[in-house]
Structure prediction request, 249 residues.
Amino acid sequence: MYSRLYSQQDIGKLLSEFNLGTPISEIEVKLNRTAVGIVKKIIKLSKVDPHVWNQNMVERYKRDLLRQHNEEYRGYYRQRVLEHLIKHPTATVADVRKAGLSWHLRLGYGNRLNDARKDANIDVKLLYAERLKKVEERHNEIEKRRKEKVITFFKKHPKTTKPYIIKAGLGRDFNFAYNGAINRARKDAGILTDEYVSAAETARQLDVSKERVSQLFEGKKLNGYRLGRLVYISLESIESRKQLMSQNH
Prediction:
């Protein structure tokens, strides 16, 4: 029933030490066998005679073996993680796991990657700064591409408005690149320049209402152009109107 490698005397001694809760390391010495072999034998015997071998004790011995194994090999596990970090200083926890070192990181450092980085002499603050820089560069690249798409659309459709931008499938690009600021997009597309200001700004400079600005624009007394519902007046026209108002006063 039992393995020929263990005599009945060996099994009796093993059961006796097992019932006493003797640590694996001590049983190793008394039986002159390895801890792994002893625990494997206990597991095998417990399946044959489950009433003789207390299952809770069997689990405890398995945990003790794992703990002993971990202590013996922790240095090895740590070294493997350090070697990877030295070659790949920007590696994340996910990167370490992809490299097949998940178990090593867990047993060697308790999944605390920053502790491993310190042992590898990696400046964590500098690492985060470099990573943030890459994120910003990536963000800027995406913003640039999306701006180019929006600007191209504006040049083809200079009188476009937000609803038409969304209808054209550029809503996400527009919001990402310009955060909904349509006049910034118009300026980048060369449609709206600094030589023109909004009706609201015109009203402020002339000290009149927006309605009055619209009347002057419709009456050709202020030069500008209309984009959708919005009116833009040239600064030159505003200055001319100011001089005329000054003369009339």
User: Anything to note?
Assistant: The chain has three domains: 8-119, 135-188, 196-248. Residues 95 and 101 are 9 Å apart (CA to CA).
